[in-house]
Amino acid sequence: MKPFLQEVAEDLITRFGSQLENCAIVFNNKRPSAYLQKHFADLIGKPFFSPSFFTIQEFFANSTSYKIADFYLQFFTLHKIYNQLLAEEKLESISSHKFFPLAKIILSDFNQIDSDLVDAEKLYRDLEDISIINKDFDYLSPEQYQFLSQFWTSYSEGKHKKQQELFIKMWRRMPKLYHKFQATLKEQGYLTNGSVYRHLAGDITNHQEFISNFDKGKIIFVGFNALSRAEAKIFTQLQETGKALFYFDADSYYLDDVSQEAGLFLRKNINQLGLKNVFAEQESLMKSAGHHVNVFKVQGQSAQAKILNNILEEDYIDSETVGKTVVVLADESLLIPTLQTIPTKFKDKEIDLNVTMGFALSTSSIFGLVDLWLTCQLEILHHDKVTYKNVEAFLTHPLTGLSQKMREKIQTALLNENEVEIDHKRLLRQNGLFEVFYKKIDNPQHVVTHLLDVLDFVLTRLSNAKTLKKIDAELFVKTIQELNRLHDTFSNHIGKEEIPFVIYLVQKSLQSIAVPLAGDPLNGIQVMGLLETRNLNFDKVVILGFNEGIIPKSSIGNSFIPDSIRRVYGLPVLENLDAISSYMVYRLMQRAKHINFVYNSLTDESTSGEASRILKQLEYESGFDFTYHELNLDIKTEPFKNVQIEKTGNAFIQETLQKYLDKKKILSPSALTQYISNPIDFFFNYIAGIKEPKEISAVVEANEIGSILHKVMEYFYQDLRNAEITADRINEQRKKVPAFIQKAFNAIMFNHPDKIVEYKGMQKVILAIVDAYVNIILNQDISQTPFNIISLEQKVEAEISFPLNGKEESVKIFGYIDRVDVKDGVTKIIDYKTGSDKLTFKDVDELFNSDGKHINKALIQTLLYTYAYEQFSGKTCVEPNLYIVKTMSNEGIWFKTGRQNLSGDFLEEIKPQFLARLREKLTELFGAPYFKASEVPDNYKYSIYKTLFGK
């Protein structure tokens, strides 16, 4: 079918011929001008002087010599005046940061008041008495009167409520704020867009110089729908003076039927305002043309984009026709999934793709770097330090250009020190980008200039290295342009602002930047938002995100003008969004042959899971040919895989295991207990060498609390071990415990025992926990006095032999024993535990059963220490004791099975059994054909390798 703009072009050429250059063609957005120019060129077929093209805002802005004030100039002007009014009322001024969200709403309301020619004085007038309404508002219709009465009655009844009182005070302030704001801007040579509309609508004949530019031609308004009052008044005046023509893209299907919301505004324009539609006599394409509609119900947000390849396959083959195919993103968050789905090539053919929406800076690595810089500056400003996670983000960011060697060197140093926060000056000493990036902002005026320095440094480096991508180059240019514009606006207004607020403004401003992606706006597949489709037509239309709440939107936006007042003064209300959305969808369908609606059927926080009501309406009344498709994503669970690592025939595994037999590697007790609990964990940890990456965190892990406790006890007994330990000596030494705890904390957490630290938050909690644990241990020790300490943190080694493949092999084990005591002639191995270890065990066999539920790692470990110490020292009858700080006050320190403690003769009876089962386990470790997972999930509940062995 013939596109609307082609029909417009044909009619204009017929009317004006060679005088077309004297015309001004006005659209509601920029996109259609390229299409109309193309139609002119095709129809005229030779060089010609083009008419002037404008958006409505550009056209109206030409009517005045005043400049249009940008948002930030409006904000700073409004804030200054608002505080002046507060001062007049003897109220405390409001900070910029608190006023900013209010200002956005107030400015939006002011703009709407001007665009709709509403008397601000009347709208904001202080009405608290129904009698005032009766007296001053006798011109209202009964319905408008009712709305107004309801609103002010509700506030009269609730005057005692604080929020209502605050609202009334602000409401009373608005008329004066509005007039002062407009006057102040005008004194500076600026107007708002809304005030330009109001100014022009006053009397268009007063702007003779402006409209005389088009005396030889006409001002042609193309494709307008919803008009503000100012636009309506200007259009009417221009029509009355014979200066304007109007081309409305309408269809009698919804224009003539008053129940059709899609025609609401066109009926107002044509029937009430009397604007004459050049195309008034056109046939109804909605009724006469064939329309095939495919409805796709899919599960999931991104899944909507993923079915595009099925819908667009024939367009990939033939994608050169003007106006053939459009993908409309009603939900603009689907841009990235859409771009990821549509291929660049199909069957060796390049696919023409044009994305009109633009690529958002906020989704790029450039914004990531800018946002990181702004975040770091806030940290430097408040604490003179930068958190490790932000330093790490800087080190690993792709635009910083740091070498792998330098990155690893800095990360290793910081990891070793476990610094959660890094001193700002230390970062500056690195020079280069560090010096530019971490330079402290000392003045609000420098926020933008310092950020420009950072971007300039990065851009120069990328350019010199010839690694700058085209899209990044365009984003850099747009970002630098925006920052320069902000610098010009800010220079006269932010001298006394707080730096964090200026940073916030810069963040907000940059988030709105987008650059167009490469593509031809006339050829191939077009990807655009719904608003961008105005005036354009396509043979094939695909609308993604066709959900209720998206089309139409479920909110009109924030406003301080309540719905009832909006209705009184004819300002836009929620129903207007329904009419606008319906019109945009219907006019896209008028000339389309193939229509595809895709919606997300899943319900979540962002969507109701329902198709748009517009689809329901079309299904019910249009008579179109509908075909329904449903994408069902079957949920398949991954089949359980019993992962086994085969040892035989694997040279790497055999070589690594041989190193233990050759004593080049030594087994630790923790390695053995890991093998016993879950053999496959041993493979990943000690054979494959897969380690959990070290991270810096303000949170102290449970194992680190244990390490701190061990260190404290070592410090505590270091000076006492040279003589018999008595209760008096322990109590005397207790005075030093707080100092020992801090020293141990610094040693474990920062690798620096004498570091001066200002403890805060969770660190203080950890110090208190360790202090409680130390006192539990010392209370136990006092109950055992007198005793002697033989050694602290003593390293012991021993060999254990076992049969393997018909011969005797051996491995060396080693470990650090927390403490060795002697009391009453009995040597005791003391092991401290801060976890949830148990003193009970079933029997020796179960200790080594990898598929059993009664493995006691602590007992295996202390018996290994006992065996190693006996081998090392030549002593016998050494007794293992376990200090489980959480339970020792109630349960004691001896291992037990049933009611029998593991000590004396019973212990000596158990030791050979333990050694025999240990040898069998070592034979299995080195001789079994596989490393496999335990059959008991609890044995690897906390394993970091669970995802690797299919559990």
UniProtKB/TrEMBL annotation:
| Domain of life from the UniProt record | Bacteria
Show the InterPro entries listed in the entry: P-loop_NTPase, PDDEXK-like_dom_sf, PDDEXK_AddAB-type, Restrct_endonuc-II-like
Gene3D superfamilies found in the cross-reference section: 3.90.320.10
**Domain PD-(D/E)XK endonuclease-like, which positions?**
667-872
Q: What Pfam families is this protein classified in?
A: PDDEXK_1 (PF12705)
Segments crossing the lipid bilayer: none
List the protein's name. PD-(D/E)XK nuclease family protein
Q: Which organism is it from?
A: Pedobacter punctiformis
